[in-house]
């Protein structure tokens, strides 16, 4: 079943307390080489039919307008996965 | 700066109420062709140096053991992004 994956991340210049907490935990458990962690969303839009270019454009718009908050988040990726 | 992306999704046979709510809202706003929505996590592990195969293996293990809950979630993807 084809799906469109929309990936949303907190903006780069924004603090991400959840990611910071995970980074601290990883450091404590010995993973010193991981300099930072950021946590965002991966949203799958499922389709019962083939995905068209129009669907991809619509998904991009849905990602910008509905699935993300443009004040604090960026849509970093919109791709089709079959 | 290279990073490793770990993607975690709720298991396929599990109810995803958040995704269901988004799907319902998309249907109400006219996107009838989206049959289902599932919402997971996209976690970026940042590095200050080049990422090695050992880092990727370690990230896979971190994803399984620490970033996801194997009872309800699957790690669907672990990739390097430069």
Q: Give the chain pair forming the largest contact, with residue counts.
A: A-B, 32 and 32 residues
Cα Rg of chain A = 16 Å
- Tally the helices of chain A: 2
Low-confidence stretches of chain A: none
| CATH architecture term of chain A | 2-Layer Sandwich
Q: In oligomeric terms, what are we looking at?
A: homodimer
Strand elements of chain A, count: 3
Q: Globular, elongated, flat, extended or rod-shaped: what is the shape of chain A?
A: elongated
Distinctive features:
homodimer; 82 residues; alpha+beta; Mth169, Chain: A; three-stranded antiparallel β-sheet; 2 helices; 33% helix
Describe this structure in words.
Two copies of one chain form a homodimer. Chain A is 33% helix and 38% strand. Chain A is an alpha+beta fold. Chain A has one domain (3-81): 2-Layer Sandwich (Mth169, Chain: A), CATH 3.30.1280.10. In chain A, strands 2-1-3 form a three-stranded antiparallel sheet. Chains A and B meet through strand 1, helix 1, strand 2 and helix 2 of A and strand 1, helix 1, strand 2 and helix 2 of B. Strand 2 (34-47) of chain A pairs antiparallel with strand 2 (34-47) of chain B.
List the helices and strands and how they pair.
The structure is a homodimer of 82-residue chains.
Chain A: E1 3-10, H1 17-28, E2 34-47, H2 53-67, E3 73-81
Antiparallel strand pairs in A: 1-2, 1-3
In brief:
Chain A has 82 residues and is an alpha+beta fold. Chain A has helices at residues 17-28, 53-67, and strands at 3-10, 34-47, 73-81. Chain A contains two helices and three strands, in the order E-H-E-H-E.
């Amino acid at each position: 079943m084809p799906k469109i994956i929309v990936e949303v991340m907190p903006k780069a210049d924004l603090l991400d307390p959840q990611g910071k907490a995970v980074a601290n935990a990883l450091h404590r458990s010995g993973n010193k080489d991981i300099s930072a962690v950021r946590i965002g969303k991966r949203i799958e839009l499922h389709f019962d039919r083939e995905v068209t270019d129009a669907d991809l454009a619509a998904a991009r718009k849905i990602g910008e307008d509905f699935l993300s908050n443009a004040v604090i988040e960026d849509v970093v990726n919109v791709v089709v996965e079959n």
